[in-house]
């Protein structure tokens, strides 16, 4: 084989390896499309990140505003809360409508407050005054029938001692409701915790 033939074969091989103009253009267009897709993806990601940041900032701002409102409301309630003596005085004077309004406005801080003079709480006062309406109002807003007076007797025991059946019934219903609420909320939670502990141990 002469030298010219060898060169011709080599040139042919090189020509086979060299991509055509069409192939070059195709690859270039593909690369361009890939780059465009990547750019779009990056833009979308950046936009999503910006939106997330804006949402987080908005949520944080709303939380701060809500917190300020709650603080302001708490401050207003504390400023406008009536004193313990005023509360006890209203119970003794049977000022039902006044007390209803005070309860609605959340201006009574401690419904079971005791008079420092005789350790009487509002519920005990209402029972000794034989005032069923006052008893029912106090129970409605969370007065505790088991809070004891200076003699060591609870409001529930005093109601039985005084013998007003309607008051005793109101006290009993209040106790039953509290026990039912306890069973519905705290006891199931306690049982779940015990079950988790047992599962962990055994």
Automatic annotation (TrEMBL):
Keyword Protein biosynthesis applies:
no
Q: Where are the ANK repeats?
A: 118-150
Q: Where is the composition biased (Acidic residues)?
A: 42-66
Record's compositionally biased regions (Basic and acidic residues): 1-16, 22-41, 67-78
What name goes with this protein?
Cyclin-dependent kinase inhibitor 2c-related
GO MF annotations for this entry?
Answer: protein kinase inhibitor activity
Keywords annotated in UniProt: ANK repeat, Protein kinase inhibitor
**Residue segments, region Disordered:** 1-80
Q: What does the entry list under GO cellular component?
A: nucleus
**InterPro entries named in the record:** Ankyrin_rpt (IPR002110), Ankyrin_rpt-contain_sf (IPR036770)
Pfam families xrefs: Ank_2
Q: Which organism is it from?
A: Anaeramoeba flamelloides
């Amino acid at each position: 084989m002469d030298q010219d033939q060898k060169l011709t074969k080599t040139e042919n091989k090189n020509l086979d390896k060299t991509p055509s103009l069409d192939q070059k253009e195709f690859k270039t267009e593909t690369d361009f499309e890939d780059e465009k897709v990547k750019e779009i993806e990056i833009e979308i990601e950046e936009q999503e990140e910006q939106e997330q940041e804006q949402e987080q900032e908005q949520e944080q701002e709303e939380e701060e505003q809500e917190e300020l409102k709650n603080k302001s409301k708490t401050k207003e309630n504390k400023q406008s809360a009536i004193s313990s003596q005023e509360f006890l005085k209203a119970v003794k004077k049977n000022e039902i409508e006044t007390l209803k309004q005070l309860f609605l406005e959340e201006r009574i801080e401690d419904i079971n407050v005791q008079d420092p003079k005789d350790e009487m709480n509002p519920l005990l006062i209402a029972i000794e005054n034989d005032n069923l309406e006052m008893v029912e109002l106090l129970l409605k807003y969370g007065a505790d029938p088991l809070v004891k007076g200076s003699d060591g007797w609870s409001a529930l025991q005093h109601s039985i001692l005084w013998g007003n059946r309607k008051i005793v019934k109101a006290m009993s219903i209040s106790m039953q409701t509290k026990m039912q609420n306890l069973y519905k909320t705290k006891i199931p939670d306690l049982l779940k915790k015990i079950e988790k502990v047992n599962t962990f141990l055994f």
